[in-house]
Amino acid sequence: MIANVLALITTVALARALGTANYGELARMVSVFTILMVPATALQAAAARDMTLGRLGLGGRAAAALQGWLGRIFIITAVVLAICLLLRHQLADVLQVSQPWAAALVLPAAALWTGLALQRGVLLGVGGYRPVAMSLIGEQSFRMLFGLAAALLGAQVGLIFFCSVPLATIPIIFATGFLTRRRLGPSDHTHARVRLRELATRNPVPVAALTLFAVLQNADVIAVGHFFNTTVSGAYAQAAVAAKGVVWVAIGLGLYLLPEAAREAAKGGDPRHLLTRTSGLLLLIAIPILALFTFAPDLILSLVFGDQAKLAASALPWLAAAMTCLSISYLSLQFLLALGRRAFLVLLAISAVAVPLVVALRDSSLESVAIGLLILDAILAGLMLGLSFSARGAGEHGLSESDAEAFALAEASTAAEAAMP
Questions:
Q1: Membrane spanning segments where (predicted)?
Q2: Domain ranges of the chain
């Protein structure tokens, strides 16, 4: 919760410091970074589970496994950085970023962050909840400190991204490494029982589902940058941040829904009442937000982000409604994951592809984009709920209680990342 508050403060402060046009560039880079974090979240969950079950060994043996993983992650980061630097102009065109070298940092930043996720996973596996919490708060604190310092010194948006994302990750990797060493002791340099590749290929359905959801949540911000000028697309990014507040609520509810539904289904019960309950709680929070965004969109955007953000005022109510529908889909996703269903992945994949198409088919207004997204997300929510309520017991590939809890822990420790941009 503290990390989320810090992330929100950083977002608002950077939006005001950068101005609407430059903030749009930052939002597009961070949106891609957020999508790429999902596989790292899955690695974190797998590491937490294996550490809990003793598969990594104890003490120095587990430390050696983590050390080996980190070595590979740093090599992968260096290789990805070299490739992205060669393709920097193409990446800048895709992201609609004015500084090619900054666009080249997005993918390596996500690869580097994977090392932090693995450290947190091992710490969670030994019950190190307080160190993980400290690393979350520390990461957001460094993002705010480095990002705002660069902005106040007049740095361009590329340098601000570098300072607030990859640079802010480095001291937390060292700090979390120190905390991990205190818990596990020094490495005994034995070979890891579980290889990084094995860890990465575990539970592919949750990884695919959460990655597709991240695309659904962020692809519109990237696509809008291709069809509108920098100021208008920046205003859209700011409105999208405001509208996504209800998604963060859904993420919190999902942390309860996933393990509880898996637990009840494993015992032979009917867990559908859990989806009904969490969806009802979500709507209790979403309806007042929708009313506020409908009756005072100009006031909210100008107070939080500045006067230029009002360019997206007409889109804000529709965006908030679209994000509410997407949040319902997220809860259904968590429910279906717990029961081991897979067919819903087709719905998510089609919807993810449809997001940029909806933006491309807009007329000349942001409002038309938001209405198109609302139609798409409402259809998806209806279909996801239909699949959920037609599913009663756990399927052949249902998540075990320990798997479900590992994924919930991983999502909890990365929920703060979704609060930025």
A1: 29-48, 69-89, 101-123, 168-184, 205-229, 235-258, 279-305, 311-331, 343-362, 368-389
A2: 2-200, 204-398
